[in-house]
Fold this sequence. Notes:
Elements lengths: L22 E8 L2 H7 L8 H17 L3 E7 L2 E6 L10 H23 L12 E8 L2 H30 L5 H8 L4 H12 L8 H5 L1 E6 L4 H4 L13 H13 L1 E5 L7 H5 L10
Antiparallel strand pairs: 1-3, 1-4, 2-3, 2-5, 5-6
Bound molecules: adenosine-5'-triphosphate (2 copies) and magnesium ion (MG) (2 copies).
Amino acid sequence: MANSEFGYVRNFEQPDALSLSNWIVVRIDGRGFTKLCKKYDFAKPNDRRALDLMNAAASEVVKAFVDVVLAYGQSDEYSFIFHESAALFDRRSAKLATSIATAFTAEYCMQWSSFFPDQPLVRPWPTFDGRCVCYPKRKILRDYISWRQADCHINNLYNTTFWSMVLKGGMSPTEAEHALKGTVSANKNEILFSRFGINYNNEPLIYKKGTVIYRSYEGDAVTNGESGEARVADPTSKTQMEKERKRKLKAVIAVEHVNLIGEAFWEAHPYVLATKRK
Length: 278
Ligand code: ATP
Ligand code: ATP
Ligand code: MG
Ligand code: MG
């Protein structure tokens, strides 16, 4: 940037680099999707096309940002997790959040017609906001992921019951809302089964669990190491990091609908959140 007498105004900018050795979550969320769902006539409670579009957009974002180790999405939101050692944009919060949110927005809009061929996208275009949150320990990051997946489950059970009462049970939205006030999960499961013949356990996993996206290195001895220990590149070694970047670009992008709250997923994929530090 050229120097001028006006250059001093740059000093008014606030530094916003995120602390080192923290996992960074960038969560994006669709703006005004309650309205957008009505405008494009999304199926209730779950429009499969809209979820597939979210997942397609997120896959491209994961491919484009090699520092993202895992992404988790549900409804109109996606969380992109940057490795604790990520150095992208010098870890500047605004750069990270806006770059992810705009990349996601561009993908969502550009891929729209593949998922909604009969409904051309019109203004106002869908947009997504984004924020960064730091988690200083892997355990807290795991709790963050569990929190979003539990939210997915709670909302989906509520919405599945609510929309069954309205669409199949002939209740008004207000009546259904009143009837569900104060109910617990067991009550909703019972309503679904006895009144609508729906066994919640048999509902599609994508609705109950949301979607996880990660780079899969199944059977990759280099990643998993002889001893089964996950191998991690040394962030201070340029050659190791460059090798790692190339390997990530070649990896298979896995898109799954699985339980992330229990240990099974993490035990089967130890390399996803592997670190140099203990
Ligand atoms: P960063 O991701 O850090 O922003 P950058 O490559 O985008 O990196 P900028 O400082 O934003 O870096 O600079 C933008 C570059 O694009 C400049 O070199 C500028 O000359 C060039 N550029 C921007 N708009 C035009 C234009 N309309 N025609 C020709 N060059 C342009
Ligand atoms: P804000 O701009 O504050 O985020 P919002 O209207 O987007 O407002 P959210 O809390 O993000 O509010 O809720 C998103 C809404 O979109 C929820 O009502 C959710 O059920 C709906 N929605 C998102 N994805 C789908 C889908 N695939 N099928 C049906 N409904 C969906
Ligand atoms: Mg929203
Ligand atoms: Mg939302």
